[in-house]
């Protein structure tokens, strides 16, 4: 039980760590187009992302797949960039093809899971019983992710319903800011692929 709480804590701290803000930005831009009334859509969207990153996190930790760290670290901001761009290109802040958004969340989750696995593998070292640690870490990631989703939806609610900013203006501001940050991150990580 002590190991569970340790890896659970490491999981939520990892996703909420401002030093590794790329995952925070992804979750924010993923759900930033929605409001609290869209909670069911957000739940499905975040679940798709969770399924994706759980799969590659497990496959990598069990050494079924190996990943090029530099490639994954470059692809993570690319996923953020694409998600932000799809939000910006949505005219009414409501994606026309919601299934495409779910599919992208699942696929991008696969990439983020490989990023999480680099961190978890360094923690596990030569540990033999990694199933419980993997589960606890993943649950911790989810708790951290829920915190980000709730904070983003709450900010959206306040700005759109209380401050009376137009939903599209909020989406455009958030998505554009995150687009710019992720573009710089991707550009900074590109040389690592060829270095």
From TrEMBL:
InterPro entries: Put_HupE_UreJ (IPR032809). The chain crosses the membrane at residues 20-36, 43-65, 71-90, 102-120, 143-163, 170-187. It comes from the Bacteria. The keyword Membrane applies. Keywords: Membrane, Transmembrane, Transmembrane helix. This is HupE / UreJ protein. It comes from Pedobacter antarcticus 4BY. The lineage of its organism: Bacteria, Pseudomonadati, Bacteroidota, Sphingobacteriia, Sphingobacteriales.
């Amino acid at each position: 039980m002590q190991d569970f709480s340790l890896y659970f804590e490491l999981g939520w701290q990892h996703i909420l760590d401002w030093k590794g803000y790329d995952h925070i930005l992804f979750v924010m831009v993923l759900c930033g187009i929605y409001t609290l009334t869209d909670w069911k859509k957000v739940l499905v969207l975040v679940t798709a992302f969770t399924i994706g990153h759980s799969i590659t996190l497990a496959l990598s930790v069990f050494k079924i797949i190996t990943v090029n760290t530099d490639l994954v670290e470059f692809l993570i901001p690319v996923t953020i960039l694409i998600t932000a761009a799809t939000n910006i290109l949505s005219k009414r802040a409501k994606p026309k093809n919601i299934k495409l958004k779910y599919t992208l969340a699942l696929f991008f989750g696969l990439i983020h899971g490989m990023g999480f696995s680099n961190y978890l593998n360094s923690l596990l070292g030569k540990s033999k019983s990694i199933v419980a640690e993997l589960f606890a870490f993943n649950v911790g990631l989810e708790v951290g992710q829920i915190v980000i989703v709730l904070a983003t939806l709450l900010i959206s609610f306040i700005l759109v319903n209380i401050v009376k900013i137009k939903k599209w203006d909020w989406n455009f501001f958030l998505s554009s800011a995150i687009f710019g940050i992720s573009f710089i991150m991707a550009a900074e990580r590109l040389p690592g692929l060829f270095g």
